[in-house]
Amino acid sequence: YGTPGTRLYRTGDLAHFDRHGHLHYNGRADSQVKIRGFRVEPGEVEAALLTHPGITQATVTTHRRRLSAYVVTGTSTVTTEDIRRHLVERLPEHMVPTYFTVLDRLPLTPNGKIDRRALPEPAAVVSRGRAPRTPLEETLVGLFTRTLGAENALTIDDDFFHHGGHSLLGARLTNHIAVSLDVRLTVRDVFEHPTPARLAEHITALKTAPAAKKARPALRRRTETERISS
Predict the structure, then answer these.
(1) pLDDT band per the 50, 70, 90 thresholds, residue 3
(2) Domain total for the chain?
(3) Which of 28, 76, 150, 195 counts the most CB atoms within 10 A of its CB?
(4) What integer pLDDT is reported at residue 212 of this predicted model?
(5) Does a structural domain hold residue 228?
(6) Quick one: 139 and 204 in the same domain?
(7) 171 is in which domain, residue-wise?
(8) pTM (predicted TM-score)
(9) Nearest 5°: phi and psi at 66?
């Protein structure tokens, strides 16, 4: 471990040496997980969930490398969209779960701890939006679905980030759009127009913008003595 007195960094990782001197990684000493390149402590997400007045119990796990929240609510009026909005106001984007499952109670082990192995597999995010109305919207829905790896086809009203999207996937989406539609977008465009419907409107506006610029009068150089009218 180095010479006496040198500083060590406590990573929280568990490992062991075998008899040949090879180091083997055994996992984490805590429940920390890695999501989109960020280290996330599920307990922090659980604490944020429990600040919602309608949630009495909560636990957070991972499913397909995305966060999955399980909650017990004290009232039937609490919806998953309410819970998502509550978290968006309190947590960074990468800490907001992709999946939300409402249960009557959380399964427990004989010792009274939450039995995460007994938790049901989260259901796919259900889309309740509109079907594509134009070829552009249809193309964008296909690109959204492909980029996100969605289990079901999305609609024009589905939010990219509500279905597990993030900045890295946003960059991938803009690349797909550039290849398929010959339109150059930025990740910021995806953040500002996160549904196929809104992004289609934005792309249409971009394509019509050059025509508006051509309508402007051409600039010409004036002499120093020529008066410029207001």
Answers:
(1) confident
(2) 2
(3) 195
(4) 45
(5) no
(6) yes
(7) 135-208
(8) 0.61
(9) -130, 155
